[in-house]
Amino acid sequence: MADGDFNPSELFGDLEEQETNSGDQEKRLFLKDIRSMLYAFGDVESPLPETVAVLEEIAVQYIIDMQLGLNVEPVAPGSNSNYSSQT
């Protein structure tokens, strides 16, 4: 690999597998992504596992809330009820 090539898997290794096998059977989908994003936005190379876990919980809950919110008030196809008619 050239000096300029960046491989995130080398940076974080198998930490995600260690964290997911540490007791709770819940599948963690975004740990590696969140860890990479934290580093990209200026955090340390290896953020605290608790920080990553809390951010993942927030992200997953947000996705669930958005999905439930989208299903609560369906709009009829072809309807423009969400848009104001400006001319």
Helical content band? 40-55%
Output mean pLDDT.
Answer: 73
Strand content: under 5%
Give the H and E element order.
HHHH
Beginning-to-end CA distance, first to last residue: 57 Å
Shape: elongated
Number of domains: 1
Detail the poorly predicted runs: 14-20
With helices defined by DSSP (H or I, 4 residues minimum), what is the helix count? 4
**Whole-angstrom Rg:** 19 Å
Count all strands and give the number: 0
Could you say which structural class the secondary elements and strand pairing correspond to? mainly alpha
Question: Major β-sheet, in short?
Answer: none
Strand and helix layout:
Layout: H1 8-12, H2 15-20, H3 31-40, H4 49-72
Region (Disordered): 1-26
InterPro entries: Histone-fold, TFIID_TAF13
Organism: Dibothriocephalus latus
Question: What would you say this structure looks like, in words?
Answer:
The chain starts with 7 loop residues before the first helix and ends in a 15-residue tail after the last helix. α3 (31-40) crosses α4. Helices cover 52% and strands 0% of the residues. It has one domain (10-70). The model is unreliable at 14-20 (pLDDT under 50). It has 87 residues and is an all-alpha fold. The chain is built from 4 helices and no strands.
